[in-house]
Amino acid sequence: MNVDIMIENVEPARCRTMRMEAEIKRDEFAQQRAAWECLKFFEQTPVTEADFRMKFASMPADDVTLLKAFYNITTDAELFKMICRFWNV
Question: What pLDDT was estimated at residue 84?
Fold first, then answer.
């Protein structure tokens, strides 16, 4: 009696789900870290609205886009207001 047995290496659905959740969390952490790096751009700025406005005007466009997407903000004015609140300006 010659029976060929094929054993497949099948990953349980629970393991796949846990791996996907970990990947999503890692991506969220990377996004949070990138947003924090953008916000740190204002770290040494004197705490006045005028100084923050000048600093905001010189902020790289990619950082503005990243922050808008991360915080679900649509306009520069909303983003500037959020940044000022963040830094207690």
Answer: 95
Instruction: Look up residue 28 and give its two tokens.
Output: 């969220």
Q: What is the pLDDT of residue 56?
A: 96
Its pTM surpasses 0.85: no
Instruction: Report whether 50 contacts 60 (CB < 8 A).
Output: no
Cα distances from 20 to residues 14, 16, 84, in angstroms, run 10, 6, 36
φ and ψ of 49, to 5 deg: -60, -40
In this prediction, what percent of the chain has a pLDDT beyond 90?
57
Query: Residue 39: helix, strand or coil by DSSP?
Result: helix
Task: Give the torsion through C-alpha atoms of 83, 63, 36, 75, to 10 deg.
Answer: 30
For residue 87, give the DSSP letter. T
